Amino acid sequence: MALFRATPLMLSLAAAWPAFADTAPPTLDTVQVTAHRSEKPLAETAPNATVVSRHKLDDRLVRDIADAAKYEPGVEVAADPNRRGNAGWTIRGIDGNRILMLIDGERLPEAYAGGGAGNGAISGRDFVELETLRAIDIVKGPTSSLYGSDAIGGVIGYRTKTVDDFVPEDRGVGGSVKGLATGADNSWGGSAGVGVKGDRADAMLIYTHRNGHATDNQGGNDSRTTSRTAPNPQDWNSDSVLAKLGYRLSEQQRLELTLEHYRRDTDTNLLNTLYPAYVSRGRPVPAQLAQTAADRTLRNRASLAWEARQLGPLDRLAVKLYQQKLNNADDSYSLFGDQSRVRSNYNFYQKIVGLSLDAEQRFAALSAEHQLLWGVDLSRTDTSRPRMKTQYNANGAATNAIGGEIFPSKTFPDSTSDRVGLFVQDEMKFANGVALSPSLRWDHYKMNTQPDQAYANSGGQAVPSFSDGAFSPKLGLSVPFAGHYTGFAQLSSGFRAPPFDDANMAFVNRGYGYQVIANPNLKSETSRGFELGLKGQWDSFDFGLSAYQNRYRDFIEQQSLGVVGGLLTYQYQNIGRVDIKGAEARAAWRFAPGWQTQASIAYAHGQDLDSHTPLGSIAPLSAVLGLRYDQARFGGEALLRAAAGNKRVPSVALSPSSNAQTSGFAAPGYATLDLTAYWKPAKGTTVRAGVFNIFDRKYWKAADVRGMAANDPTLDRYTQPGRNVSASVEYQF
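Request: output the structure for the sequence above.
Response:
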């Protein structure tokens, strides 16, 4: 582990910081919940856990998950600028469904990325309204010892607002009204929330509405062709409702019902998909004269939670029953030069029903204070991808046999995944402050399929059921020393069973000459990780350093098998070993009353150890430097973001139907400056404004251009917005 040779130098630099005269502890600790599955001050967690707090979301005028990740080095959100927008989170080079996403501790639906040539439909994971959140917890690295399969790369934990966020302790009612406007996508909206508290019951309601257009970029080609780099014309709107009703059964017991609804509708004129007539495989193809899309994301959640404090030997016992439903619809309409029309109706459904039990107890034994956490996670996930397409010919005839496929169809059979997880963690804190935290989780995963006629229309390949189990241990150690420092070390493991699409995707498209075949020999992915960290804290200064190495085995990726039976053939396979190592650092210095500066930096190196090629999902070296001023009525922040050029880029395929390779696009380095400010002109009123990318830099996020060729003429389509402004006005009562 050559990476850790640098660790003594980092520790020496940290220790060289002069001891401050002020030794009083900070007055406010940010709480992290997800990293330990229980509330814990962020200062006591390892450096791989961070929090994007509500005040950061507000003051930095964050509009979506891409903005939320913008100032977190080592964390990215990839986006599709053509139609679908944000896809999901990437943490230390691991993305997609290898990142577990939770909302209030409940599993969120998975993403669907499609497969094969010409089947790149994406159902992303941007389906949470950020105005409903009090914080976003980010846990980097394998976390399967507490959360099981799918946490092999990390966890994103959304925590929604509670009635306490609206109602002060000395009042029975409170609320807020907020207006929002963002220049990057010409969007506007509003959010209103209210909370009410009684002697035993309380209630909270938040409603948010947004309208917007396509996110701007710096592409200059606005032609109606595949060479277009300007944004496609787009209109979207979203509505979110979050309701909570709580009832205190006794001084120590509480019931809470949560209902959530989120819907986003997006209409896009896909001008970048239009093309003239041409000949393919010896047959004429008519020009595509028009294509429009109507996409919908609909997520509904319901949960009932019971929590008790000081119940017999238990300090805390919580039981939650929950259900999540996701319906992603991507519909399109196309007009061709022969006057034929094609209407497509594709859907991605996922329903999750889960039950969780968390128990916590504290006791003294073996010369240590113990915090024992144990529990059970049970869930069932039903997943379906129905596809319908109809072609209306110029003579009035209609057909469902299009492009070598017969519709209705499904690219994988309906799938049911059952998960059972049992976990235990014991945090032992000794008199000298040393804390040892062993944890262990056992998971059992089983997936069955239900083939039907729609799946048979796609080829009907036999897909076997899948079953696997794993133990995921973890050992953490924290050692305080010299009054201000705490050293951290942890050994972790991860486990991920093949999800519905990797294990079950199997279909044939003879019209375009390709197929995806099932792999009955897929194995679960596993990981092993080692991390060292150091934190230091004074009244005026704090810092965190970490160095890590994660080794992944049996990574599942889609591979080309060449031509089989006259068709270019793809299959999901375990490709072998992947190694990711890196280092991260952050610091904050409160150098004068109201003033502070902060800095953070992340470096990662990823390698496919079998093919000896770079891992394309690794972000280049990135850093953030900030200067902030706060006083009672106004304040502001300057944030400089910088990224080095992405030099380690793997080769990419010339086309989805070819095995030939070409150089991948290496996103150049960049630096941008953002300025935000707030003003409180009256009690309860806050006006916020920001100017972003002040110097109008043209740049790309590395996550957005993965897999793109260096000579792709449409690269400018993936550039980020130029100079833009955002603003909000909030009144709290």
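The mean pLDDT is 90.
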